[in-house]
Structures are given as C-alpha cells and as structure tokens.
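Protein in question passed on here:
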Amino acid sequence: MKKRCRKGEADERNDTKKKIILLSSSPAETTATWSELPFDALGEIKKKLFWRDHVRFNGVCKNWLAAQHAKRAGDVLPWFLLLDLQNDLRRVSYSMYEPSASNPDPVISYHLYISQFFDISLVRIPYRITYLHGCLLISTYDREYSSSYFLLFSLATQNIIELPRINHHVVSPTRRISELFTAVSTNPTSPDCVFLALHITTDPCEWIISTFRHGDTYWTTTVPLGGFYNIPEVPCVEDILFIRGAFYFLFLGGRLVSYDIATMALQNYYTSLQDIHKFDKFFVLDDELVVTYIDREASNCIRRFDWSQKDWFPLESLKDRSLFLSKHSVFVDTTNCYGVSSNKIYIHKERNCYVYSLENGKVCNCTSGLTNWDGMDYNPESSIRGLAENNKISLWVEPPNLLLQK
C-alpha cells in the first residue's frame, strides 16, 4: 500500500508537469518575462487600468518606454466635475467622472461641510463658488454685506486653506454690479499666488480692490482714484484674469481695464468690440486674452486681444488643439492624442456637450465629436442624472494626474 501510494504521488506530480507543459504552446513561453511582452499589448493593458494604478504601472514598467507613453482618454482629456449644493447649502458634494461611457459612475466623490469653517448663523447663503486652477474658491458675505469670507479647497489633495476675512463698506445685494469677483495669478496653492477680490460698494459708491499673498495676515486694500472710467455710472464686470503681471477686468461691451499688481496702476483699453449680446467665457490662450460670446445675430464668436493694436480680432484657428468650455472652467487639449480633435471647441451647457469647429475665425456647428472616440461619451443624459435640478453646477476639470502636478 505504501509503495503504491508513493508511486501514485509520483505519477500525480508527473501528470501535473505534463499539464503545465501542455498549457504552453512553446518552450519559450514558459521562461518569458513580463518585460518581453509586445509594446502594443502593454499599451492596451495600461489603457484599461484605473487611473490610480498608472503610478504603479509606470514604476514597474520603467524600461517599457513605448507602453509608458501610451495614453488613454482619462490621461489627456478633461474630466467632468459635478458640484451638488445641498438644499440648505451647508454642504458641497462633488463627483468626478472620467471620459468613458463604460464607467457611468463617478471615480472620485467627496463632501465638504461648509459649517465646519463658517458660522452659518453669521454668513449669507447661498455663497459663490469659483473654479480656479484645480481649486474651488468659496466666498460669501456676512449678514450685513460689510465683510467677505473665503475658503480654498484643492481637488487634487483635498487640502483646505482659509483666507482672512475682508472688511469693507456695504455692498448692495440687489445690484449686479456689486457682485463679489475673485481671481488668482497662478495655481492658488502656489506660494507665489496673488489673490484678488473686487467689491463695488454703495455707500459711498466706490471700487475696492483687495489683494492677498500666502504668508500675509490680512488683505491689502486700495481704492483706485477716479474709478475705472472716471464716470459716475459704474459698468458691469464680466470676469477677471491675470496675465503679464496684471489683472485684466473685462466689462460688458468688450472693454478692458488692467490693474498692475506691482504699481497698483490702472490702464483703460477702449476697444471696438461692441456687438456682444451674451458673454460666455474669458480666458488665456497662447499668452493672449480670448473671449467667447454670442453676438446680436445669435452667432457664436471667439476673439483674441492683440497686444500691439490694443483691440479684439477674430481667432482664426486652434491648429491641432481643442478647447473645452463651460461656464465655470476652460481646458485646452494640446496633445491631440486621438488625432480627431484638431480645431474643435466643446461647449458644455444645459446638460449637453455642443461641438463646434473654428473656420476662418467663425465658430461653426460640427456633428463629429467625442462620442466617436473609443466609446467615450460626454453626454450627461446617458451617465449623469439631475443636472437640471437646482443647486447643481457642472464643469470641465483637468485629469487627476495633471491636477496632482499643479
């Protein structure tokens, strides 16, 4: 019995070896290593990985250069951020969706409780939320509209920075021109960042510009002499941007005013852009100011500011790049990894993504878009519900791997 058992065990081991050999189509495969896999296969593997696993993949595949540079949609295209402001507006919830129809669920979700930082009984609700270089800047007034509070939240690290309060003269809650505007010179978490807040007060009626740098204990406030136009009637501000050492204020009608952060000097630019019916977006592209808007003939327009002529001119082409625009953010795709997005503009509004092409300075409707790319789909009707509900904001944001580099 014992001999038969030993023989049976030996036969079983031999059978197992035979099975292992039979599973291999060639002797070379039994000794092959992962590094010997074809680069194309490694690239396909990386494309299917969850974005958090890309760091581990690159660590293992240091010598697999072809696979290391393989891209997938979630690496190079903007993600979709959905902000959900709760009914009592004391909590901000956000979800981040990657550009893939195969994954309709959010990849990242987080809840930010405003009541942990602001005394809800002392501040005004609702508050203003601005997306700035991968960060959410939340600002609000006190009950008397004589102080402003700020909270900075990084989407990449989920770190929170509380900025000092600004005390100012009373602003009017019913006047559009008294709305609080904020802007930054660079990534808000950078030690070199300059924060700017603009208030237009009612008693007395004056412009108040406040700036803040990391390390300061209070905001530096100035009141520009003579106002922006040296006229009693205050024009409406559409948006504020920083470029070339100055903040630029865009007014209704395309007029510009710059504020130099070093000299605190104002400069007016009286431009010829007067056909704006509805302002869309103000952003920087190629070291130039760019504005998109709808003119009085209901046509979509895009203009750039020429520094030499100090006026607005049509933007002729995006070349091999594409723009992703929403009310709250701008993303520029410079890689054109998939080779089909050249000179395209993707505008997200009203629960849909509208695709345009830029032809000779004209924004034209375009039927081809991201839905044709490897199953990717930015149409929220198919994956993200409830955007039409109150207290919800949607916008494009950089892919998480790019946010971590900021």
Remarks:
- The chain has a mean pLDDT of 74.
- The longest helix spans residues 2-23.
